[in-house]
Amino acid sequence: MNKVKIGILGLGNVGTGVWKILNTNKEEIRKRSGYDIEVGKILVRDVNKDRGIDVPKELLTENPEDVLKDDSIKIVVEIMGGVDPAKDYILEAIRNKKHVVTANKMLLATEGDELFTAAENEGVAFYYEASVAGGIPIIHAINESLTANKIEQIIGIINGTTNYILTKMTFDNMTFEAALKEAQEKGFAEADPTSDVEGYDAMYKLAILSSLSFGTRINIEDIYREGITKIKPIDIKYAKDFGYIIKLIAIVKEVSGKLEMRVHPAMIPERHPLASVNDSFNAIFIRGNAVGDMMLYGRGAGDLPTGSAVVSDIISILRGSTDVEAISAVRNNYLNIKPSPMENTESEYYVRISVMDLPGVLGEISTIFGEEGVSILSVMQKGKREEFASVVYFTHTTLEGNIDKAIEKIKASGHVKCIDNIIRIENIQ
Amino acid sequence: MNKVKIGILGLGNVGTGVWKILNTNKEEIRKRSGYDIEVGKILVRDVNKDRGIDVPKELLTENPEDVLKDDSIKIVVEIMGGVDPAKDYILEAIRNKKHVVTANKMLLATEGDELFTAAENEGVAFYYEASVAGGIPIIHAINESLTANKIEQIIGIINGTTNYILTKMTFDNMTFEAALKEAQEKGFAEADPTSDVEGYDAMYKLAILSSLSFGTRINIEDIYREGITKIKPIDIKYAKDFGYIIKLIAIVKEVSGKLEMRVHPAMIPERHPLASVNDSFNAIFIRGNAVGDMMLYGRGAGDLPTGSAVVSDIISILRGSTDVEAISAVRNNYLNIKPSPMENTESEYYVRISVMDLPGVLGEISTIFGEEGVSILSVMQKGKREEFASVVYFTHTTLEGNIDKAIEKIKASGHVKCIDNIIRIENIQ
């Protein structure tokens, strides 16, 4: 049996998963890869920390050179996260002719190009299945399985934390704050939840998916991003009343030759397969011009699911099944697709406004919508005898730019306390 | 640009899809494969038949040798279906050192071993993504993406015809007969629907999935098979009342070192992702010991979806990304897993019985269930003033063998008109 030595950078959640899988599934991996995989060294911050797993202490090191400069190590797995120093470590591994497997979405989304080019120049494999949607083999699917297709659209639920929170808000009537607290207690959300709840995490993943699917370079600044912190129980309730479920979605699609990329909460039809993706599960809905509608569903995070993607990448490298040339060819023929400005996005909208409870106000607002070309599907006013009333509009399909202009005018009208929320409605067929 | 010539055996539904995709997505395919794919010859039964697509007549031939013996053809696509003569054609193509792509599930399920061995001996690729679940890249997922996992269980909705019929019965209150007629009118069912509605089609696909996932040879005789023809609207209604949806499912799982393989209608929980797979869509739910629960959803049939799988296979061959050795290694290390006898299957059961409406009959039947170790969860008797009453039992988890014995005794009791239906309940978590 052939033997191969790998090095691991980082021994957190995913690192632990990789270690467990390499041990538990040794037989399967041996059979499928033709190799006995041996872990040579693992870079950690503190070799004395108790990690609750049975990693022999002599494998741990606090010196990156022990991984990056060891000639016996053929594959380096980077699962430490963050841009710095992960980027430098990966570049050094590549220079030392090591294949690289990474789960680092932020690094890929912001500095991917430099890493891909370096790997190409040195003729080593650079794999990153684990960077998007954990265990779901979406990178593989786009890169290898859907190659006969022109991909038209991707809609993903690719952040488990926000999906967990929204599921709790939808089915257990929790507030955002209570659901976030529960998610934190259960380990589904970080102490500082910003990256998840403000949509940054989903944005990085969308950048990777968009680049891959549309064969073009992506600037993350071109991705519209909005989190879920403004979603209130009342919005969830209105959505339900109209047959929708609110999800944080990441969308990319080509519209009139430009690329529309956005991450934001949206109401989606409750009968759509994406609507029943609950808890911390992820799913990616793809429309290809040959395959039609497809969805991949699974665990988007967690030690073993993400470890599954990492170890499968290692096996792919060992099998030599990467066609490095073919993947480079796509990169070297990157299309120059311009991003579509957000004001050109077409959508239906849900707008919830607190207005002064005076005669004529409703008419005034409706007139403003009309002036800006926004056609109203439904309007509801909650009849409370207070100074301010809550009015909810569901619009027909319109341009984001029209909504923006109408909202500015409504704010300026003097009869509005505040625009409580604006949520896009994606009527996915 | 490199050029490669392919030959196609069959120009039906899938063949038309392949032709369309090769033309429509020429640019994408060129970029991803590094090749211009040219169709050399297409074997058809009648070159004069009008197929409604723009295939130049000089490409058509009625002589298989024009495809199989043409040295300029490097890849043969077999999409004629059936075992005979498809098997001989494929073997001849392999002997002539041509790579083969097939969509032929029946052939693979029954004669796959001989074909794999032949391809291995000649060192050519033998791909079959299109044979299971059309456009869904399930073969690729198991073979290449989930390699880090020990697969524990697969539950699939892998027959579009029966799923269409059951969807109509569930949501439009149709009878089986009416739904079948509509499916036939819409082209979702054949004039002779036996292969679909009796579960043969799903059985072939399950054999392929089982062999691949568990690394073992499968005898299709070892797969329990039952179709959907006995499902009545009343069964659908009872299922709904208890929170279930009836689907034709194909299951494989390892239980106590043996392989349980079965195709039959089952009640599944309405909140499970598989329950919302409607119309002619397919989905495959996989549980891996690392990745956890995963589902792939998409179009299981149709010219373009199935063509998508065929053309993606061609591209994989052109990229040289098949690790023929690794796949052979799995085959050459096939495990000897015995099939699990059906009487050892554990399930909950729904049993609908027409009994004589006499005092004591209900007690008698319940006693028999108890004697055979079948514990009852719910029982309902429809109170009609007729000679026979309909009684419905929902059982707790029990062995199929116990149910069988109880049913024999109940039949022999003399107070039963008939056992109207027995449907397994899969309480998938």
UniProtKB/TrEMBL annotation, chains A, B:
Involved pathway(s): Amino-acid biosynthesis; L-threonine biosynthesis; L-threonine from L-aspartate: step 3/5; Amino-acid biosynthesis; L-methionine biosynthesis via de novo pathway; L-homoserine from L-aspartate: step 3/3
An example molecular function term from Gene Ontology annotations: homoserine dehydrogenase activity
ACT domain mapped to chain residues: 350-424
Reaction it catalyzes: L-homoserine + NADP(+) = L-aspartate 4-semialdehyde + NADPH + H(+)
Keywords, alphabetical: Amino-acid biosynthesis, Methionine biosynthesis, NADP, Oxidoreductase, Threonine biosynthesis
Top-level taxon of the source organism: Bacteria
Key word Oxidoreductase present: yes
Cofactor(s) needed by this chain: a metal cation
EC number(s) stated in the UniProt entry for this protein: 1.1.1.3
Pfam families xref list: ACT (PF01842), Homoserine_dh (PF00742), NAD_binding_3 (PF03447)
Coiled-coil boundaries: none
Entry-linked PROSITE patterns: ACT, HOMOSER_DHGENASE
Keyword NADP carried by entry: yes
UniProt record similarity statement: Belongs to the homoserine dehydrogenase family.
Protein name per the record: Homoserine dehydrogenase
